Amino acid sequence: MTVAERPLRVAFFGHAEGRRGDGLSTYSRELVHALRDEGVDLRFFAHRADGELVPVESRDALLLRAWHLRTVTIPRPGSVRSIRTALADFAPDVVHISWSFSLHDGVIARLGHQVGAVTVATFHLPHGPAGTARGRVLNGLYRYHRLQMRNVDRCIALSWGQRALLVRAGYEARRITVIANGVDTTAISPGPSRLHHELGARLVVLYIGRLDPEKRVPALVESFLSLRLPSDHVLCIAGDGVQRDRLRRLAAGRANVRLLGLVGADRVLELLRGCDVFVLPSTTEGLALSLLEAMAAGCAIVATDAGEDGTALDQAGLVISTHPLRPALDTAVARLLFDEPLRRRLGEAARDRATTEYSMSRSAQRVLAVYAAASSRVATAPTTPTPVALP
To answer: Recorded GO terms, molecular function (predicted)?
Structure first.
């Protein structure tokens, strides 16, 4: 993609890795790589509190200082000045914010306009079940964030349900494009793994993600233990979060429940390729990247119908209702553990669904189309695939 015969310049405000391992950092890493593959000249902005693993060379990254609380990133004094200086130096055509980057998201969008860039935001906030206390809280947060988005030219929603909430909150429908999360189906694919040998396990159940209340990982541990499986049937939990200590207590004295902590991308692939059943028991989601990664790796999957997860997995895994979680979770996990042909069929179907509908290269081309729609200054080079038409 070019602007006046030079590469398109994008300032991407996202999330680094190292001290966090969630969908936000994965989204940043994978989309940045895909945009660079499309010829974009990209400068990456993140917070040092996330870690120091970034998807670009250090000369193309700016790590900012901030206080990172559970769900809020509070920039430290001087952050706005650093961002303003970096943007003026880089002169981007597009400022893309992985929302919410920090409490300064709205300020960053305004700074983008000040340097002549168009501004785009990918909205990551999940949406809760209608009529529940969590759903009402999230709806209120949508209204709050809509006010901060007054300087955002185009918004990328990860699902149609999320788009509907943004519209109800007051953001203009014509400026919203739905682009589902994508996954690098070349890098993440079925393959050999030493996981069974490493664990001394015959069968492995796996969860990867944040250890926060909405993920309901303690319920997964309780469900797994209730099945009274042989000791060579192992549950692995990879990730970190506020429920870490509770999970340690649940796993204490249980040799077949392994808490792995945060794991890097290479280890994630080893886990996905080696597991027999992948489980995602969330109560709220947009479209979980961990689910798409498991699909790309050819896992047999059990997931709730939270957000768009059920739609993505439909007929390519076992989808259970978000509420009540049990005994449906117990039944679905047991069914897959005891039916190897079913695991194989669902794994193949999940892989096929990921490659045909959720590839990151397809998502990146749609993001480039959003950039083009946001500004007539963005032109498409002859070698760039034709942008997907916007709804």
So the answer is: glycosyltransferase activity
User: What pLDDT shows up at residue 162?
Assistant: 87
Query: Is the separation of the CB atoms in 278 and 249 below 8 Å?
Result: no
- pLDDT tens column, 265-288: 899 999 999 999 999 999 988 789
Which are the contacts of 70, defined by CB distance < 8 A and separation ≥ 6? 212, 242
Picking from 275, 301, 295, the residue whose alpha carbon sits closest to that of residue 193 is 275
Listed in order, strand segments (DSSP E) in the chain are 2-3, 6-7, 9-13, 41-47, 61-64, 66-68, 73-75, 94-99, 118-123, 154-157, 176-178, 203-208, 233-238, 257-261, 277-280, 301-304, 318-320
Same topology, domains 2-182+359-374 and 195-357? Answer is yes
Cα angle: 344, vertex 350, 354; to 5 degrees? 150
> Per the structure block, which two tokens stand in for 201?
């396990």
Where on the phi/psi map is residue 170: left (φ > 0), alpha (ψ -120 to 50), or beta? Answer: left
Helix 289-296 vs helix 340-357: angle between axes, to the nearest 10 degrees? 110
What CATH number was assigned to the domain covering residues 195-357?
Answer: 3.40.50.2000
CATH topology of domain 2-182+359-374: Rossmann fold (3.40.50)
Rounded CA gap, 119 and 109, in Å? 6
**Which of 107, 34, 147, 24 shows the shortest CA–CA distance to 10?**
34
Percent of the chain with pLDDT over 90: 75
Contact 61, 46 (CB under 8 A): yes
Domain residue spans in the chain?
2-182+359-374, 195-357
Q: Which two tokens stand for residue 276?
A: 């027999």
DSSP 8-state class, residue 76: P
3-class secondary structure, 52: coil
Burial of 9 (0-12, 13-18, 19+ CB in 10 A): middle
Structure tokens at 247: 């999970």
Rounded distance between C-alpha atoms, residue 285 and residue 308, angstroms = 7
Q: Are 178 and 155 in contact (CB under 8 A)?
A: no
294 closest CA partner among 268, 264, 332: 268
